[in-house]
Write a structure and sequence with these properties.
This protein has helices spanning 3-12, 58-74, 93-98, 110-116, 122-133, 149-163, 167-174, 220-224, 238-253, 258-265, 329-347; strands at residues 18-25, 30-36, 52-54, 184-185, 205-206, 211-212, 234-237, 275-276, 292-296, 300-305, 311-317. By secondary structure, it is of the alpha+beta class. It is globular and about 55 Å long.
């Protein structure tokens, strides 16, 4: 099966309205695949390279991990820092990045902002962060790996404190490393919606927000925080994520980004801010054990494999439109995509 067939089947089977993928190799080859439309209504625009997607937890890698690495390089943040000793004794920045702090995966922290009537406002961000810091760890630091949005919400707040600037501004400066890119947060109290709304793939029809979401962050907690958070909130096109993927592939294979490369190479179930490729996971054993990346709840995926010839794999969908139900169906699409894409890389075809 080809990459194009994988995406076409995903749309045809109703798993997602649209999908966009690109595979780029270290020896200069590029494979592009597009399928479907932004939504399922009649007259919906077709997906193209400039369609804008809610990247969900790709934010953890593309924004938060990059900002931590830059802060470590400048000496403004230490991986062994214990920022909240009273409530989270022994938990360090490294634990939060590696998802072994013992914190739970998710909590409806947005309810704190809803009850206070400050959803989407700066006060909403403060309410969500305060609620996150009240969450009790479920295991000792380092005892087990448990993917946690709660930890990255706290990590984003810590970055803002140490950098002395809002997370979206810090990211806008750091993202210059990616080259020409439109990756950005959508701050609800000032932006309102993504400036390219007609190009944005919609996500879920949300019961508590009482509307379909388009051009505003899908994640409940990030929405309550005003659209800017350490765990979610970034938007971008396939071209944008491809540019970032190229940066990360170079970081893993060339001198110049030693801190990020060390984050990816750190031992354990996960790297520091990076997920690993595993045979039983979404990469289906098609990538090398050195491959790292991340997934996003909305149906996004990014992996880089430094094994020769080196390759980056990007898959973007809005599989949560109009509902997050049947979330396991995207798992098979991701596996089939990586298998088809890796086969193309190995073939040496143009």
């Amino acid at each position: 099966m080809t990459v194009e067939q994988v995406l076409s089947d995903a749309v045809g089977d109703g798993i997602t309205p649209g999908a966009a993928a690109v595979v780029v190799t270290g020896d200069g080859r590029r494979r592009l695949a597009l399928a479907g439309h932004l939504h399922r209504l009649e007259g919906a625009p077709a997906v193209d390279e400039r369609t804008v997607w809610d990247l969900a937890s790709l934010t953890k890698l593309l924004s938060t991990t990059l900002l931590v690495a830059r802060a470590v390089d400048r000496g403004t943040l230490a991986l062994d820092l214990e920022p909240w000793p009273a409530r989270w004794p022994g938990i360090t920045v490294a634990h939060l990045l590696r998802h072994d702090a013992g914190l739970p995966d998710w909590r409806p922290l947005f309810e704190a902002a809803r009850k206070a009537g400050v959803c989407g406002l700066p006060a909403g961000a403060r309410a969500v962060v305060a609620a996150a810091l009240e969450v009790a760890p479920e295991a000792a630091p380092g005892a087990r790996t448990l993917y946690s949005d709660v930890g990255f919400i706290a990590l984003g707040a810590l970055l803002e404190e140490r950098l002395g600037t809002p997370l979206d501004r810090a990211f806008a400066q750091a993202a210059g490393a990616y080259g020409a890119t439109g990756l950005r947060f959508v701050r609800l109290d000032t932006d309102g919606f993504h400036p390219a709304v007609p190009l944005v793939a919609p996500t879920e029809r949300c019961l508590w927000r009482r509307r379909a979401l388009f051009g505003q962050v899908h994640d409940d907690n990030a929405f309550a925080m005003g659209g800017v958070a350490g765990h979610a909130g970034l938007f971008g096109s396939l071209l944008d994520v491809e540019a970032a993927a190229g940066f990360y592939l170079r970081a893993l294979t060339e001198p110049g980004e030693e801190t990020l490369a060390s984050f990816a190479a750190t031992g354990g179930e996960r790297g520091l801010g990076f997920d690993r490729a595993t045979p039983e996971g979404t990469t289906a054993g098609a990538l090398s054990p050195r491959a790292v990346g991340h997934l996003g709840f909305t149906g996004t995926s990014l992996f880089m494999d430094p094994a020769p010839p080196g390759a980056a794999y990007v898959l973007l969908t809005n599989r949560v439109h109009e509902s997050r139900e049947h979330k396991q169906r995207i798992f098979g699409v991701r596996r089939a995509f990586h298998q088809a894409a890796a086969a193309w890389v190995a073939s040496g075809s143009a």
